[in-house]
Amino acid sequence: MELPKELFSNLRATFDEKSFNDALKRISTGKAMLFTGAGFSFGAKNIKGQEPPRAADLALQISNLGGFSEDEDLRFAADYYLSFGSKESLIKLLKENYTLISTTASHETISSSQWRRIYTTNYDNSIELSANKKGIIIEQITTKDSPEKYYKKNNICVHINGSITSISEESIESDFKLSTSSYIAPDSFTTSAWYYSFKKDLERSSAIVFVGYSLYDIEIQKILFGYPEFKSKTFFVIATNPSQKEVFSLSKFGTVFPIGIDFFAEKLAGAIEKYKPSKEEQTLQSFLKYENNSSENDFTDSEIIRFLLNGEIENERINNAITGIQKLPYLIIRENISRATKLISDKKNIVIFSELGNGKTIFLKELASYLSLNGHNIYSLEDSEGDYIDDLEKISSLDVNTILIIDGYEKYLDFIGYFGNLNPNKIRLILSSRTASHEHLRSTLSNIFNFREINIDLLSENEVLDFIKIIDNIGWWGDLARLSSTLKTRKIQDDYKNQISLTLLSLFNAPQIKIRISSLIETIFKDDALKNIAFAICILEILDLPLKPSLISEISFSDDIYSPKLRENKQFCQLFSIKDGEIKSKSSIFSTMLLRDYFSPSFIISKLLDIVEKYEKLNKNSHIEGQLFKSLLRFSFVERMLSDKNKKNNLERYYQDLKIRVQWLKNEPHYWLQYAMSKITFKEYENAQAMLLQAYSLAKNKSNYDISNIDTQQARIFLLRSIEETNPTESANLFINAHKLLKPLANDVYKFRQVTLYDEVYKAKYPEFSKKNQVNFEHACKNMKESLDDAELHGFINVTEQKVISLAMEKLTVIIKLIQDSRNS
Question: Which Pfam families does its entry note (predicted)?
Answer without folding.
Answer: SIR2_2 (PF13289)
